[in-house]
Specification:
This protein is an alpha/beta fold and 469 residues long. The chain contains 15 helices and 21 strands. The protein folds into two domains: 259 residues, Aldehyde Dehydrogenase, Chain A, domain 1 (3-Layer(aba) Sandwich), CATH 3.40.605; 178 residues, Aldehyde Dehydrogenase, Chain A, domain 2 (3-Layer(aba) Sandwich). The termini are far apart.
């Protein structure tokens, strides 16, 4: 078990740790060993209703606070997270199967997001618009949405909670958080302790743990939730959007995709293979920015595959809490079996070749390179979410572009020796993010302010007008 915590097995509603209405809990398991780390409450619609009610009551006062007061809470949360960083890192290693470097990077990114979001509190500015009548003063200003429901995934449970949670709080909203049931400690319970210590007022931030149908769906459907922010699979994202938009409530969806890593024929193969291996295998390939398709031009394909195989064979897999390893266990047997039995084995049956890997011991899946992958195989058409790099060889840049755009993706990449050629390729790629000679995540941008606020205009008639009636 992790150290005794007030949040263990509890929800956090209106500033109080309390059990679910039905009293039910479930264990949280260490992914490498199966050891019980703690428990989480199995919340239901009754608990969601209680949490949303608390948020509704607390939100107006929170929104009326001075911007510096809201910002100060976020800065203190970043300080507390720093003071408890080692505890949070250990939890991420054991609860998610991450190696230390990944866990440290996640905590660092979460702290940066808190401080960055604190600056939004003082940017809730407005405009004076031209009047359309004599003596008319029109003011347009930003206002909070109200209550924001946040549903987060298991792969980056801390930073992917901070991305919506921190700006939502900074801009005057109240939040109800529903973390993934595989990571409710790092992704929920410890975060509540951190924000409580930072001084968030009761009801402004609430936690309901539980599974998707019992807790997530009622949160998405709750009439008093003004916005749902969901990060996760495309399949579940469709369900969340369908529920939340029945009454035209705002939704923000960050979904997965079948990302491509394109290697052009002028690329530095060693550099490309290093980047390709990292984007295929980091955190066991279980990220939304993982490259699920390696599309390589034929003149460099053999050299690229040889380098990728060499790098994959040099990766050590084991228990990240007890050994110095590069990769830890996969998140669950369900995820492992999906990768192996629904993607790797069927692709091999259709003609793909396993150049290395393709085996597992428990949740430890060996880094895998598949070659002879064609666009009709599951290894090409499906987001893999496992440590598998499928390589598809093409004969031209146009063919590489067509295959890149064939699948929906969150982030695509192109590797080349000519930056302008890479930029020209990137301009023709249909995805929200494109990297040239790199892979991975996204930069910080201005979207948060627009995402978590609304615009309202108020017209003030300063002089009397004569009306016809």
């Amino acid at each position: 078990m992790l150290l005794a915590r007030p949040s263990d097995g509890c929800l956090y509603i209106d500033g109080v740790y309390l059990p679910a209405w039905n009293g039910a809990t479930a264990p949280v398991l260490e992914k490498a060993t199966g050891t019980e780390l703690g428990r989480y409450a199995l919340g239901t619609a009754d608990d969601v209703d209680l949490a949303v009610g608390a948020a509704v009551r607390a939100q107006p006062d929170w929104a009326s606070r001075l911007p510096d007061e809201r910002a100060a809470v976020l800065h203190r949360a970043a300080d507390v997270m720093g003071a408890r960083a080692e505890e949070l890192i250990e939890c991420l290693i054991r609860e998610t199967g991450a190696v230390r470097a990944k866990a440290e990077g996640e905590v660092g990114a979460a702290r940066r997001k808190l401080r960055e979001s604190a600056g939004l509190a003082n940017r809730m500015t407005g405009d004076i618009l031209p009047g359309f009548k004599p003596g008319k003063l029109i003011l347009k200003h930003r206002i909070p949405l109200g209550v924001v429901g946040v549903i987060t995934p298991w792969n980056f449970p801390v930073v992917l909670a901070m991305r919506p949670l921190a700006p939502a709080l900074a801009t005057g909203n109240a939040v109800v958080l529903k973390p993934a049931e595989l990571t409710p400690i790092a992704g929920g319970q410890l975060l509540m302790e951190i924000f409580e210590e930072a001084g968030v007022p009761p009801g402004v931030l609430n936690l309901v743990t539980g599974d998707g149908p019992a807790a997530g769906a009622p949160l998405a459907a709750h009439p008093d939730v003004a916005m749902i922010h969901f990060t996760g699979s495309t399949e579940v994202g469709h369900l969340v959007a369908e529920i939340a938009t029945r009454d035209f409530r705002r939704t923000s969806l960050e979904l997965g995709g079948d990302n491509a890593f394109v290697v052009l024929d002028d690329a530095d193969v060693e550099a490309a293979s290093a980047c390709g291996a990292w984007t295929a295998y980091e955190y066991q390939g279980q990220t939304c920015i993982t490259a699920s398709r390696h599309i390589v031009l034929r003149p460099v394909a053999e050299a690229y595959v040889d380098a990728l195989v060499r790098r994959a064979r040099g990766i050590t897999v084991g228990d990240p809490a007890r050994d110095k390893v590069d990769l830890g266990p996969m998140i669950s047997e369900t995820q492992r079996d999906r990768v192996h039995h629904q993607i790797v084995r069927p692709s091999v049956a259709l003609g793909a070749r396993i150049r290395t890997g393709g085996t597992y011991d428990g949740l430890y899946y060996q880094p895998t390179v598949l070659t002879d992958v064609t666009p009709d195989m599951p290894a090409f058409t499906e987001e893999i979410f496992g440590p598998v790099a499928p390589v598809t060889v093409v004969d031209s840049e146009d063919e590489a572009l067509e295959l890149t755009n064939r699948c929906r993706a969150l982030v695509n990449s192109v590797y080349t020796g000519d930056l302008m050629r890479g930029y020209a390729f990137a301009e023709r790629v249909r995805s929200g993010m494109v990297h040239v000679n790199d892979a991975g995540g996204r930069p910080t941008d201005e979207d948060d302010l627009d995402e978590f606020t609304d615009r309202r205009w108020i017209g003030v008639q300063r002089t009397g007008l004569k009306y016809p009636y």
